Write a sequence for this structure.
């Protein structure tokens, strides 16, 4: 496994999705895990229209010393896209060889609903050739756990395989962040994400 | 004891700073990007009195009162909120501040969620207030505490100018123990607090001299930071997030980072600048620092290289410094954006605004809009609203528009749309004003969408929320209130009864006079619909797209196997069961499940 260590250049992560998918909570948990693992951490997220079907995105940077919370185009190591079109939207932020993780369930923007534009179902044909593209049907896997609300944490599990942060830290962050009655399903979702 | 370090957003850090400073009273009106600050105080620090007031002017007045009573006070709002609060602010600033008074203004360079991009540093300088400009969460906390001290020491209100990026960005914060600060109480002193002439005359000198005193003390305060690079020919003066973005570039420059952007340490900067060939100011929005330096005769450049609008990200700063000849070439290999379909915000699944805007779209009338979630009714594909200006403006504007059109011989129906939160905030006065020189044949329809919450900012309670028992302590009956104001034609309608709602709204639009329609369904995000969700029977669907046109997130046309034409479909994981699509369907193809299923 290609883990990145604390002594290298900052690790740049972009999170992208649609309002209501739990992106702010995801950013929060990533930051907290990075902080507990000893990284300097800075993050950003664009909120405001966050629950209303608009595009939302955030960035998390982990390193020895981080100045700006912003990630420049072409400098992200990872993108976690909770929706395919949002993955495509942000892929220009990935560096060559960077990894694009996509949850494949589609949420139609108004232009697709109104049939003004066609939703690009052929994701592979639009992905940059110089990046690593990893897609999973996260929604179906979440539904198998009995809920639609753990897709964000399952995506975090996917990412966790590539970060030098211990299982104990991830688990404690999940426990302390999500409401108590949802802790078990979130931990299951995280583990399932890691196993993909 | 080990230092306790936490990750915090700027908003959380300001709340923490107020707590550590022994803060007493906090008031706000919710508006992005500062909403989370007061929510954090309410949630984490219950000993502080905190409220979301009815509007920003009232919030500021609550803060004035508590400050006069000797309590440490924090008032927060989004940048445009300060316009609403400007009247009390411009006079309060004349008085000698007693309990520390901090005004947190959330500015929004780039307008991520705002109707304009005003630079509130200008407003604070206009009000003779010192301005702190934090660059991360640690500074947001530190400047909150220092701001309150400065407020008391120099007897001045202080602005904590914070940008949306800093409000929402998480960085590390070192925690400290809270101070215990006594509340000194109010002492009557009419010449100090009764702001009419002649009491105001000496206050003009107070405002001037307090800023001069602070300017002299700036170096000793240590809030500004100078990093000298040996051999550098360029001095950059900057503050806020642009400082950290600049640091990403490792440019061969000395940096003077300001923590306070008004007043500036002019004599220090004048001396320092002499040692450099070039002085460049990097600041977002207006040339605020640059203009002050130029007025003081310090040669510098700024907006010549950097945009007057939007944020200044790392790439913008790099480009500006290349144009200024400071950086020779970019080491950054940028990637081209690829064209991807846009994603506009839209009403949530189950949103009670959906049927109202479907009805209004079909009416094809001029609609004067207002500020709230329903502002999205101006966007594609609804395109129902014709105007959006400011909180409550629709009710003043509709009158001017009506009177002007009647002068030109036109009495076509005009409609205003406003939510309950915005109505209480500043719509009520506009509504009352409609009764002035009222002509009973003026055709105006006022739609008040009473959804029981301030929805756009995350669902804060407002004056009519108690009907939905969400903990609000105000129990305003909107219909009775409007009756009492003197209006007699008021219709109350459940918009999830689509046909009835359409008939009512259409009748009132036709009515040659003034009528008010109040809708009753609450916000679907705040008060979940507990009915089973819907599905489309593709064998019944005729593909007419009546449901699609309501513009609901889960509904779109789909190719079913074995069926030639596209038919409607509902994504089960997103449908919450409001029933509006099933009511606009002409053939009964959309059916409710027995129990909610998500696949």
């Amino acid at each position: 496994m290609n883990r990145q260590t604390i002594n290298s250049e900052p690790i740049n992560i972009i999170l992208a999705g649609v309002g209501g998918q739990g992106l702010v909570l995801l950013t929060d948990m990533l930051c907290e895990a990075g902080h507990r693992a000893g990284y300097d951490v800075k993050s950003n997220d664009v909120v405001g229209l966050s629950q209303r079907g608009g595009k939302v995105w955030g960035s998390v940077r982990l390193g020895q010393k981080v100045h700006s919370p912003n990630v420049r185009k072409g400098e992200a190591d990872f993108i976690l896209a909770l929706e395919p079109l949002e993955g495509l939207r942000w892929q220009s932020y990935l560096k060559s060889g960077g990894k694009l993780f996509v949850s494949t369930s589609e949420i139609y923007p108004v232009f697709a609903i109104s049939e003004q534009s066609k939703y690009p179902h052929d994701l592979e044909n639009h992905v940059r050739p110089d990046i690593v593209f990893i897609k999973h049907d996260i929604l179906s896997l979440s539904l198998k756990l009995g809920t639609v609300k753990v897709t964000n944490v399952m995506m975090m599990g996917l990412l966790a395989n590539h970060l030098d942060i211990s299982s104990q830290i991830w688990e404690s962050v999940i426990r302390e962040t999500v409401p108590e009655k949802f802790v078990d399903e979130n931990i299951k979702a995280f583990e399932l994400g890691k196993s993909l | 004891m080990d230092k306790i370090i936490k990750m915090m957003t700027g908003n959380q850090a300001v709340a923490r700073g107020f707590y550590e400073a022994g803060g007493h009273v906090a008031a706000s009106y919710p508006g992005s990007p500062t909403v989370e600050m007061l929510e954090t105080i309410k949630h984490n620090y219950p000993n502080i009195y905190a409220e979301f007031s009815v509007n920003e002017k009232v919030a500021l007045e609550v803060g004035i009162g508590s400050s006069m009573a000797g309590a440490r006070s924090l008032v927060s709002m989004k940048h445009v909120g300060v316009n609403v609060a400007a009247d009390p602010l411009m006079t309060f600033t004349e008085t000698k501040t007693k309990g520390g008074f901090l005004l947190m203004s959330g500015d929004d360079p780039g307008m991520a969620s705002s109707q304009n991009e005003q630079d509130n540093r200008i407003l604070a300088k206009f009000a003779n207030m010192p301005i702190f400009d934090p660059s991360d969460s640690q500074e947001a906390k530190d400047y909150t505490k220092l701001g309150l001290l400065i407020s008391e020491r120099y007897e001045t209100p202080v602005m904590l100018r914070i940008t949306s990026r800093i409000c929402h960005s998480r960085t590390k914060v070192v925690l400290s123990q809270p101070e215990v600060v006594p509340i000194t109480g109010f002492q009557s002193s009419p010449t100090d607090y009764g702001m009419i002439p002649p009491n105001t005359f000496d206050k003009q000198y107070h405002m001037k001299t307090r800023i001069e005193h602070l300017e002299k003390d700036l170096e000793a305060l240590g809030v500004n930071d100078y990093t000298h690079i040996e051999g550098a020919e360029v001095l950059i003066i900057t503050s806020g997030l642009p400082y950290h973005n600049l640091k990403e570039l490792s440019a061969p420059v000395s940096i003077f980072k300001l923590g306070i952007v008004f007043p500036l340490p002019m004599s220090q900067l004048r001396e320092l600048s002499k040692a450099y060939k070039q002085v460049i100011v990097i600041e977002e929005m207006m040339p605020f620092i640059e203009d002050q330096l130029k007025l003081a005769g310090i040669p510098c450049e700024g907006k010549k290289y950097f945009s007057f609008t939007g944020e200044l990200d790392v790439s913008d700063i790099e480009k500006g410094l290349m144009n200024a000849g400071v950086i020779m070439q970019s080491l950054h290999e940028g990637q081209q954006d690829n064209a991807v379909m846009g994603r506009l915000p839209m009403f949530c699944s189950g949103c009670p605004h959906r049927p109202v805007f479907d009805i209004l779209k079909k009416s094809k009338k001029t609609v004067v809009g207002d500020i709230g979630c329903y502002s999205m009714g101006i966007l594609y594909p609804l395109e129902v609203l014709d105007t959006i200006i400011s909180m409550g403006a629709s009710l003043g504007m509709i009158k001017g528009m009506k009177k002007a059109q009647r002068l030109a011989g036109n009495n076509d129906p005009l409609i205003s749309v406003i939510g309950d939160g915005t109505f209480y905030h500043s719509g009520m006065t506009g509504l009352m004003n409609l009764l002035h020189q009222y002509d009973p044949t003026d055709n105006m329809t006022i739609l008040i969408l009473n959804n029981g919450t301030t929805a756009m900012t995350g669902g804060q309670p407002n004056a009519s929320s108690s009907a939905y028992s969400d903990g609000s302590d105000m129990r305003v009956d909107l219909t009775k209130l409007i009756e009492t104001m003197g209006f007699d034609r008021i219709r109350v309608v459940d918009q999830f009864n689509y046909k009835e709602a359409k008939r009512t709204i259409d009748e009132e639009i036709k009515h040659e006079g003034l009528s008010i329609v109040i809708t009753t369904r609450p916000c679907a995000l705040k008060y979940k619909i507990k009915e089973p969700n819907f599905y489309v029977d593709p064998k019944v669907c005729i593909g007419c797209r009546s449901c699609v046109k309501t513009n609901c997130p889960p509904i779109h046309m789909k190719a079913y196997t074995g069926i030639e034409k596209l038919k409607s479909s509902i994504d089960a994981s997103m449908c919450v069961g409001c029933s509006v699509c099933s009511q606009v369907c002409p053939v009964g193809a959309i059916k409710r499940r027995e129990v909610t299923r998500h696949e």
